[in-house]
Amino acid sequence: MALFGFGKSASPEGRQVPRHIAVTMDGNGRWAKKRGLPRSAGHAVGAETFRTIATYCKDIGVQYFTVYAFSTENWTRPKEEVDALMDLFRKYLREAVETMAARGVAVRILGDLTPLPEDIRALIQEAAEIADTLGSSAATASLCINYGGRDEIKNAVRQIAGQVQAGLLDPSEITEDTISGALYTAHLPDPDLIIRPSGEIRLSNFLLWQSAYAEYYFTPVLWPDFTVKDLEDAITDFNRRSRRFGGVK
Ligand code: IPE
Ligand code: IPE
Ligand code: MG
To answer: Model pTM greater than 0.85?
Structure first.
């Protein structure tokens, strides 16, 4: 699989559609606060935005759509908020299990799943089994839950060190592909475009290894307000970029 590229289709205006778009779904809490609502209300609307944008991405030919839904650091939030987020994951995972075959979208969950409630882990397993039955032409929507870029790299190092210790791998044989292949994203090409709404200009531990040559797009729009037009603006901006990958163009 080539590392970088464009999706098969172009949008109606003839623009190239990135093959892999990733989004940090940020700003739900501020969206709710502005309206005097509990933070959980912002998460609920943000989840609807996820559905709208994921569907649109599939329709315009984005092969891989990856979202940051819950970080390894988000456990430090009040229990009430964490519980509300877990309830949303339950709801959307159930929906995914019921509809992904008909929609032709493989929903996959990336992250350290061990601390998640048992019933959510069972739903994730069910979704993975259905995703495995979908052909390679299916679009992939990946939801990063209890995901941290550093945690992911640490786990990859442990896995590779285990292979070395078992005598299966010599340290001189470790390549960049060995590391990419030990990450949660082993089955995905690197992201071409990473969008962060909500006005924050930081990575917050998202796709640290995979973003080496991603194009970033930052916008002040809060995720629950993010529309198809905002996505199109990001894609238009992406089309203006000159991606050189360290070479000369
Ligand atoms: C993103 O929105 C959702 C999660 C991190 C789970 P936030 O909840 O971080 O919203 P803000 O940043 O407080 O507005
Ligand atoms: C990043 O947003 C994590 C997710 C959107 C899931 P945060 O709101 O947790 O990040 P910080 O705290 O602003 O860096
Ligand atoms: Mg935030």
So the answer is: yes
